[in-house]
Amino acid sequence: MIITITGYPGSGKSTLGKGIAKALGLKHYSAGDLLRQIAKEKDLPVMELHRLMEEDESVDRELDERNKKLGLEEDNFVIDGRLSWHFIPKSVKIFVKIDLKKAAERVFKDSCSDKKERCGEENASVQKTVENMQKRMEMNKGRYLKLYNVDYLNESNYDIVVDTTKASIQETKEGVLKQIKSLGKEQRKDL
């Protein structure tokens, strides 16, 4: 079984992905980690890489090829990535949403606690973090529509949609695991 997870920034996609992978005994991958690797290889801050991706399709294509290859060569894993559901169509597709202010509070806390390196101008305050999240989501949506004619924010693309605004990660994980198990056996057999 392959499970793909996407959604809003700061919604807990990676944490949920790791939790589901552990609960089901599956490997976990993150497109965010892959993207940060690409940014590091290009010696760019992540936000600058996102801006570059607006003008240069090669970064998207590199990330997309890594997703496709993973879906073709492996089985029994969870991956959180914005378009992983699109490039790995035979997967249980999960979308995680959250109120953006709540997401920004989480990201700001995680990024800026103990002066972590991810804190900087991009996350100088909760409000600045909200603004950057909105910009990033709009940039991504426009780019994906242009490149692939897909709207990753359209919830009808997914098998399971969860809102983590008020739920703990444990509650979310348990709810998603129940939903995965309740998907028809015929549907899961094909995944």
Helix content: 55-70%
Structural class: alpha/beta
Count of separate DSSP helical elements: 9
User: What CATH architecture would you give?
Assistant: 3-Layer(aba) Sandwich
- Which spans have pLDDT < 50 for at least 5 consecutive residues? none
- CATH class category label: Alpha Beta
Radius of gyration: 16 Å
Q: Largest beta sheet: what is the strand line-up? A: 2-3-1-4-5
Q: What is the string of SSEs from the N terminus onward?
A: EHEHHHEHEHHEHH
Per CATH, what is the topology?
A: Rossmann fold
The CATH homologous superfamily is called P-loop containing nucleotide triphosphate hydrolases
Strand content: 5-15%
Annotation, overall tally of beta strands: 5
- The N- and C-terminal alpha carbons lie at a distance of 5 Å
List its traits.
single chain; about 190 residues; alpha/beta; Rossmann fold; five-stranded parallel sheet; 9 helices; about 15% strand
Outline:
The chain is built from nine helices and five strands; from the N terminus they run E-H-E-H-H-H-E-H-E-H-H-E-H-H. The protein is α/β, with parallel strands linked by helices.
Topology:
Layout (H helix, E strand, L loop, with lengths): L1 E6 L5 H12 L2 E4 H11 L4 H10 L1 H17 L3 E4 L3 H4 L4 E6 L2 H13 L13 H23 L11 E4 L5 H14 L2 H5 L2
Parallel strand pairs: 1-3, 1-4, 2-3, 4-5
How is this structure best described in words?
The chain is of the alpha/beta class and 191 residues long. The chain has a single domain (2-189), classed as Rossmann fold, CATH 3.40.50. The chain is 57% helix and 13% strand.
